Amino acid sequence: MTLRMIDLSQEIYQGMSVYPMHQPTFIMTNMTHEDNMKTTGSKTLGFSARNLLISEHGGTHSDAVWEYKPTGETIDKMSLDFFWGSAICVDLSHIPPTNYIEPKDLEEAIRKAGEEIRRGDIFLMYTGHFDRSFGTDKWQTTYSGLSYAAARWLAERGVVNIGVDAPAIDHPEDLDFSGHLICGEFNITNTENLCNLDKVVNKRFLYFGLPLRIRDGSGSPIRAVALVEE
Q1: Whole-structure pTM value
Q2: Per-residue pLDDT at 230
Q3: Distance between CA 128 and CA 95 in Å, rounded?
Q4: 51-73: string of b/e by CB count within 10 Å (b at 16+)?
Q5: Residue 48 DSSP class
Q6: Residue 124 phi/psi, 5° resolution?
Q7: What does each C-alpha distance from 31 to 27, 38, 184 come to in angstroms?
């Protein structure tokens, strides 16, 4: 069996778009090669490094249950089984940004993919939002999201991680944050700001999106990848 790796992660850079409530990303020079050579006295080799100031929810990231449930586990306490395993990606790109994603939409998308939800699955939603709107003023404001009923429908079927190619799994007009609310009720995670889901849509594959082991973290940037059978 031959596996092909597909990168599902957005680039991290200063000025990258982040959800409005979170810390903007700054990248600063710690030392240059030349400065380091002066410090160490070496005539042959200098070391260069930069410093990152980034939100735990900057770029492609997963949430700790504690972010939206004070009694939930922080990212360092959560089992890694939430962040890797068998995954499916379904096509919801036809849902208008004004609409919520409903259970009937999920059922139809799963049927069209020829797949089924298994307990322990990672469930990724290709909405097309990254392809259409990344880098525009609509990126943070105009996208679809799960209704409360749809999020509960997924959680009741044993999904442990809900991912999307948008800034949030919730609809931007939903001030109840229904997707996160359900993740808190069922003690599961979600993954936001994915990309390249068009390359895995309607497939089952092996997914990895491991968080940093941040003590007491509310979430973590991840490097999300899919391993797809050729």
Answers
A1: 0.96
A2: 86
A3: 9
A4: eeebbbbbbbbbbbbbbbeeebe
A5: -
A6: -110, 140
A7: 12, 11, 42
